[in-house]
Amino acid sequence: MASVSLSNVTIDVPVFTTKARFFAATLVNMATGGRLAKAHDGSVNVRALEDITFTASEGERIGLVGHNGAGKSTLLRVLSGAYYPGIGKVDVKGTVGSLIDISLGINTEATGIENIFIRGAILGLSKKQIQSRLEAIVDFSELGDFINLPVRTYSSGMHLRLAFAVATEISPEVLLMDEWLSVGDEDFRHKAEQRLLQVVEATSILFLASHSRDLLEKLCTRVIWLEHGRIIADGKPSVVLNKYFKSKKAE
Amino acid sequence: MTSTLRHNVWLAFMLGWQDLKQSYRRSPIGPFWLTVNSGILIATMGVVFGVLFDMELRDYLPYLAVGLVTWNFLSTSLNEACNVFVLSEGLIKQINLPVYVYILRLMWKNFTIYLHNIVLIPVVVLLTGRPLTWTALLFFVGLVLVLVNVGWIVLALGIVATRYRDFSQLTFAFLNITFYITPIVWDRKTLDHVEWAQWLVTLNPLATLLEIVRAPIMGTVPSLVTWQIAIGLSVGGWAFALLMFRRYRRRIAYWV
User: Fold this and answer.
1) Cβ–Cβ contact A90 with B under 8 A
2) A44 contacts chain B (CB < 8 A)
3) Residue A35 confidence (pLDDT) above 50
4) Does residue A34 register a pLDDT over 60?
5) Nearest to A22 among B7, B164, B255 (CB)
6) Helix %, strand %, coil % for chain A, to 5?
7) pLDDT reported for residue A4
8) Which one of A124, A155, A195, A210 has the fewest beta carbons within 10 angstroms of its own beta carbon?
9) Per the CB < 8 Å rule, is A105 touching B18?
10) For residue A173, what are the CA distances in angstroms to A16, A58, A129, B2, B7?
């Protein structure tokens, strides 16, 4: 059974001033001591998430809303395990998959085939799994013979089609998404839509950060509204979305 | 658990292999471009400095060959260690891959380049007509110690240099200077009478790592002190790097 549980999670992200990035400057600071030593590295912490507590269980599809900088992306990073919280506890049971950046790890100098293996491996697919699905991935991407050429020779549409075809091969228990993926021309987009829905339906728990009301209403069973790193509301999509979009209009 | 480990090692090797391919992808002779490059460098420096220092080329060329290709491996690894996490920012901020994937990726790439250059060592030895003795097999023992030490240095340096970005320039400058104070183009024996120079070499860990692979090729067993330093450095270095790793590994994603 997949489950996600966060208790009192607080994330401080250090924002370094140029000076704080330099060891030489830090040494001087440490040597001069006193007032400077107090903020010895000159870095500023930005509180990206504050005291976040919630649990998600099997079957939930959770939409994340909030203004830019509200903490949606940070929360997704915490869920993926990339950010370890300084305060609080994160407990994710089940495999986590991400469709946040589908081009992640693509090497433009490498061929399409090579990239299928690289991307597949990054997503956690074994060599055997990739080999057995290779043909299907190539077919889906509609790249034909281009698949043997370096990705740098692709158009941006082809690049995305390849990335999409590999990225949607995953079947995680917890799926993370930042906005819905929309790829390619009319025909491909339709095919991609179907494929994406399949992936979403196959996962136990979905986290989807989005600004689109239609999408959230259509897909989600629950919406969490974040503002300044805190949870403002958490509940039924109709209720939370109403509140959120009303406050947005009021601005 | 073991299957995860195997998968991650495979991933690291694949990424490292891609990095390597990138460096010679557009060259018609492929990876041997690296070998040719080093070969020309050794030949040129060998003749120039051999004549300059009035050395027997028969001794000097193999000495220089081992030193130079091993130094290149060390210095490239250390220089790149500073960016080992920075260059993988995208991956580190999105997914939770173990840190060793990035370390192995870098080491695999540089070790493969080193292997392409190691080929030159027996060639130079044969060309100069020096005998290769059984002692030469100790080279491989030395090689293991070199790799073990590069491992901890890459890990430690990678962490610090992610936090302090000027470490990359500091390391570059440090290695540039170290190239001259380390016996690579010169032999410590020629400075037998200068006591402080002897100390400088003994206290230079990179000199020890070079000596431990070079002495066997030159037909001598590395001295006891050399072994002691190399092994001590491996143990102490890993202890230090792992302590640092334990303390800061969660911070890496915030620092990149």
Assistant:
1) no
2) no
3) no
4) no
5) B164
6) 45, 25, 30
7) 96
8) A155
9) no
10) 36, 9, 17, 21, 19
pLDDT at position B59 over 60: yes
Confidence of residue A37 (pLDDT cuts 50, 70, 90): very low
Tens digit of each residue's pLDDT (9 = 90 or more) over B86-127:
999 999 999 999 999 999 999 999 999 999 999 999 999 999
pLDDT for residue B28? 73
Q: How many residues does chain B have?
A: 256
Q: Which of A82, A107, A109 sits opposite B94 (nearest CB)?
A: A82
Q: What is the pLDDT of residue B87?
A: 93
Give the integer Cα–Cα distance in Å for A243 and A232: 10
Nearest CA in chain A to B16: A118
A-chain residues within 8 Å CB-CB of B164? Answer: 21-23, 26
CA distance A174 to A202: 10
- Contacting residues of B for A105, CB less than 8 Å apart: 90-91
Query: How close is the nearest chain B Cα to the Cα of A176, in Å?
Result: 10
Rounded CA-CA distance B117/B76 in Å is: 13
Q: Cα distance from B18 to chain A (closest Cα, Å)? A: 7
Tell me the ipTM for this assembly: 0.88
pLDDT of res. A23: 82
Q: How far apart are CA A132 and CA A167, in angstroms?
A: 15
Compare all CA atoms of chain B with the CA of A125 and give the residue at the minimum distance.
B7
Predicted local confidence at residue A183, as pLDDT? 80
Contacts of A124 in chain B (CB under 8 A): 7
Give B-chain residues touching A172 at CB under 8 angstroms: none
Residue bearing tokens 């040494």: A27
Using a CB-CB distance cutoff of 8 angstroms, which residues of chain B are in contact with residue A19? none
Number of other residues whose CB lies within 10 A of the CB of residue A104: 18
pLDDT given for residue A33 in this prediction:
52
CB A176 within 8 A of CB A92: no
The dihedral over CA atoms of A62, A68, A72, A74, expressed in degrees to the nearest 10, equals: 170
